[in-house]
Design brief:
single chain, 298 residues, alpha/beta, three-stranded parallel β-sheet, 11 helices, 39% helix, 18% strand
Length: 298
């Protein structure tokens, strides 16, 4: 939450045009506390609200609370019904990335793939979204191999991937570095979860050849639309850096909502953003590949 707030403040500081004052409301981590903060903000005259940040709170707001003013939620609600008209949703959900990677694999000629999946809930959601999208495109997901940390078991699990023309890695950065040596020359695809930022050439070489997607904020720092915004004052992890970037784009979208714009289209620092169905702001990320020891935008 602090990272998002810092990015929001940084973008506000760059914006030179007059704007209404920004007021912050501290809320507890539970959904009820978030809703109480929302009601307080609206009662105080807020014309645009940014938040909540947690999935439970966004779900409670979307399907159990009147939304009288344009509100930008920073997570995706559980799919339990149609969202109110004033609610817009911008999130960094892994499912969006996994679906984009599935389309990338299909468009680059892959037709039969295997997935290598970690056991955590995020990795399982990632794998499920990739598999569903790849099958929807017409491809075959021939196997889902569980990731194991033991080298001998991992070698055995990945041996003999006959008829496979690519592997999707539903893994963390550390897991991907462990698994990469056992996957030979097979084309490899992944989400931003394998990209830990600039961790030096050794990490880059360990991930050699992996295609993945990530936001412009991490992959294109010199691009004018990215360089226009200040970086965090102290170094942060890639995960927190992405949340800081989310804060920047949250400010920019809130500005559009305040100005009455409803057809939201934005070349953001978190990706190319476009308003889709039910208030969901769709996010297209940058494609990249690990080569020569570093991540290179394609």
């Amino acid at each position: 939450a602090n990272a998002v707030r810092d990015g929001f403040r940084a973008a506000a500081g760059v914006d030179e045009r007059p704007l209404l004052p920004v007021r912050e409301y501290a809320v507890s981590g539970d959904a009820g506390g978030n809703l109480e903060g929302f009601r307080t903000a609206v009662a105080a005259g807020a014309q645009v609200v940014v938040g909540p940040l947690t999935r439970d709170a966004v779900t409670a707001l979307a399907f159990g609370e009147p939304v009288p003013v344009p509100t930008l939620a920073l997570n995706v609600p559980d799919d339990t019904g149609r969202m109110p008209g004033n609610l817009y949703v911008l999130g960094l959900q892994v499912e969006t990335e996994a679906r984009q990677v599935a389309r990338l694999a299909w468009e680059t000629g892959r037709r039969t793939v295997a997935t290598l999946s970690g056991g955590g809930p995020v990795q399982r959601r990632m794998q499920a979204a990739f598999a569903a999208e790849f099958r929807r495109a017409g491809g075959t997901v021939a196997a889902d191999i569980p990731f194991v940390s033991d080298p001998a078991r991992l070698r055995a699990a990945t041996r003999g991937l006959n008829g496979i023309d690519a592997v999707f890695l539903a893994l963390s950065h550390a897991e991907a570095r462990s698994a990469r040596p056992y996957l030979g020359t097979l084309p490899l695809y992944a989400t931003s979860s394998v990209h830990g930022g600039d961790l030096g050439p050794l990490a880059g070489h360990d991930l050699s050849g992996i295609h993945f997607v990530d936001m412009p904020w991490l992959l294109e720092p010199e691009h004018p639309r990215v360089a226009a915004y200040p970086r965090p004052k102290t170094p942060v992890s890639a995960e927190l850096d992405r949340l800081y970037a989310l804060g920047i784009d949250a400010w920019r979208i809130a500005r559009q909502l305040l100005e009455g714009t409803r057809d939201i289209r934005l070349n953001g620092v978190t990706g190319r953003l476009m308003l889709g169905a039910d208030g969901l702001i769709e996010r297209e990320l940058v494609t990249a590949r690990y080569a020569d020891g570093r991540a290179q935008a394609m």
